[in-house]
Amino acid sequence: MAKKIFTKDNSSYIIVILAYIVVEILLKTGSVSSLMKGLLVPLCVYVILAISLNITVGILGELSLGHAGFMCVGAFTGAFFSRYVGDAISFGYLRFAIAVILGALVAAIFGVIIGIPVLRLKGDYLAIVTLAFGEIIKNIMNVLYVGKDSLGLHISFKDTASLNLDSATGDIIIKGAQGITGTPKDSNFTIGIILILITLFVTLNLIHSRTGRAIMAIRDNRIAAESIGINVTKYKLLAFTISAAFAGVAGVLYAHNLASLTALPKNFGYNMSIMILVYVVLGGMGNIRGSIIAAVVLTLLPELLRGLNDYRMLIYSIVLIVVMIFSWSPTAKAFRERYFGFLKKKKEEVS
Predict the structure, then answer these.
(1) CB count, 10 Å around CB of 300?
(2) Taking the model in full, what pTM does it have?
(3) Could you report the per-residue pLDDT of 154-183, keeping only the tens digit for each?
C-alpha cells in the first residue's frame, strides 16, 4: 500500500517536470506562439489555485467560494512589497521570494480570521459567507489608496489627494480602482513550476500525514472523528489556512506577471472562484493529479479553439459537460471500473 501511494505521488511530480521539459524544448525551438507564451505563467497560477482549493473542497470536504479573495490578498501584498522596496532590493529573485512569503503569510492570516467564524457553518451557508468575503476584499481594494513619502506610509479610502503626500518624495503605490502599476515582472514559467512543485510537496505530505488523516476523518464523519478525540475546529482551521496561504502564493505569482494589477471582477471576482472550483470538481475532489490536468486542459482549450472563433465557447461547454458526465455519472464510473479492471487482469495474466 505504501509503495502504491509513493508511486502515485511520484506521478504527479513527474507530470509537472515532464511538462516543463517539453515546454522548454518547444520554447527553445520557437514552436510556441506569443499567445501561448503569455499563458504559461497564468497556467502555473491556476494549477496552484486548483491544488490549494482541493485541500478545502476535496480533502476537508467544505465548499468554499472565496478562494479568489485569498488570491487577491496575496497578489496585492506581494505587489505592494515589491513596489515599496523596488529601489532597496535590486535582486529580483530575492525580492520575489520575500514577496511570496509575505503574500502567503498575509493570506494565511486572513484565512484564520475568516475561518474561525466561517468554519462553524456547513454546506450552502459556508459557501455564501466565503463568497461574501471574496467580494468584500475585492471592493476594499478598489477604494484603497496607499502612498509613501519621507514621513512613511499614508492610507486613505477617499482619493489620492487625501493622502497628503510630500510633493518632493511622495509616491502613490495603490491607486484605488487603478490598482498598482509598475510592479517588477519577477515571475516566469520556471519560477511558476518551482512553486507548483512546492505546493505539491506540501499538499501530498499533508494528505499522507497524521494531520491529513485527521482532516479526512472529519470529512468522512465528523461525529465519529469527535468521538475518538480529534479536535475538529483545529484541523478544519489548519486545512483552510494552508489552502488560503497557497492561494496567496498564486496571487503573488499572478501579480508579478502583470504591468498593472487591478481588483477587477474578472481577476478576483465570483467568476474566478467558480472557475477554480470547476478545475477541482472536474479533476476529481481530493484528486491532486486530476486538479493539475483539469486546470491545464481547461485553460488551454479556449485558446486552442480560437481558430474556431464562432464555435469555440460552444465546443468548450460541450467538453465540460462530457467530462463531467464521464467523471461523475454512475454508469460511466461502472464502465471505467470494468474497463480498467479488465486491463489490469490482462496485464497480470501476461506477467
Answers:
(1) 13
(2) 0.87
(3) 888 888 878 887 777 778 888 888 888 888
